[in-house]
């Protein structure tokens, strides 16, 4: 597995963990707070040297601040 794959996997684990929390406890994280939570996770990944994961999480957090119709491919 390449380093890029590891970084993507690390970022995906964060998102899946948040998804699991929201599934098990609906409303645990208000939608307005979700980008902030993902940015906090990005900061943690950055501190651990997972720079690719941090970049992905940051990009995804910023995407969530846009209306769905403005999401790019």
SSE map:
Blueprint: H1 3-24, H2 34-47, H3 51-63
How would you sum up this structure, described in words?
This protein has one domain. The protein is mainly α and 73 residues long. The protein is built from 3 helices and no strands. The two termini are 25 Å apart. Helix 1 runs antiparallel to helix 2, helix 1 packs across helix 3 and helix 2 runs antiparallel to helix 3. Helix content is 67%, strand content 0%.
List keywords for this structure.
single chain; 73 residues; mainly alpha; 3 helices; globular
Largest sheet: none
Helix content: 55-70%
Mean pLDDT over the full residue set: 92
SSE arrangement, N to C = HHH
Low-confidence residue ranges = none
The number of helices is: 3
Straight-line distance between termini: 25 Å
Radius of gyration: 13 Å
Tally the structural domains: 1
In short:
By secondary structure, the chain is mostly helical. The protein is built from three helices and no strands.
């Amino acid at each position: 597995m390449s380093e890029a794959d590891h970084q993507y996997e690390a970022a995906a684990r964060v998102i899946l963990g948040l998804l699991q929390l929201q599934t098990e406890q609906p409303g645990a994280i208000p939608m307005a707070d979700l980008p902030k939570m993902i940015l906090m996770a990005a900061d943690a990944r950055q501190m651990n040297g997972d720079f690719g994961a941090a970049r992905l999480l940051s990009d995804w957090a910023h995407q969530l601040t846009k209306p769905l119709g403005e999401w790019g491919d």
